Amino acid sequence: MATFYKDENGNFLANIKGEAVPEGFTALEPNTVDAATEKHVPSVDLQRDGHIIHVQIGEVEHPMVEEHYIEWVALEADDRLEVHYLKPGQTPVTFFAGGMKSGTIYAYCNLHGLWSAKF
């Protein structure tokens, strides 16, 4: 399982092999239950028999304004980690090439931190 870290400058580090982490990085614990008004838990839809992984952040579309947005969405599956970066103004939706039937999707909100959902 990937572990994500962040430093005081806003830099991220993804650790997928359990190797030592540089000093100054703090582990992020993903949330899986959304208690905020905005929805943050990734919603995953496997399409074309799992060959396309469609991800929307939240059942209700997450805000994507400069002061509150999803910075990135990551797929972890089959020893693979793929990250898609988003910007304010974009729709909080992305697609990953699939071929797998299970994995974890992570989403990072600039205000509410790391969120995850297994599929």
TrEMBL record:
Origin: domain of life: Bacteria
Name used for this protein in its record: Desulfoferrodoxin family protein
PANTHER family: SUPEROXIDE REDUCTASE-RELATED
Family the UniProt entry places it in: Belongs to the desulfoferrodoxin family.
This protein's record includes keyword Transport: yes
Keywords per UniProt: Electron transport, Iron, Metal-binding, Transport
A Pfam short name: Desulfoferrodox
Domain Desulfoferrodoxin ferrous iron-binding: 33-117
An annotated Gene Ontology molecular function: iron ion binding
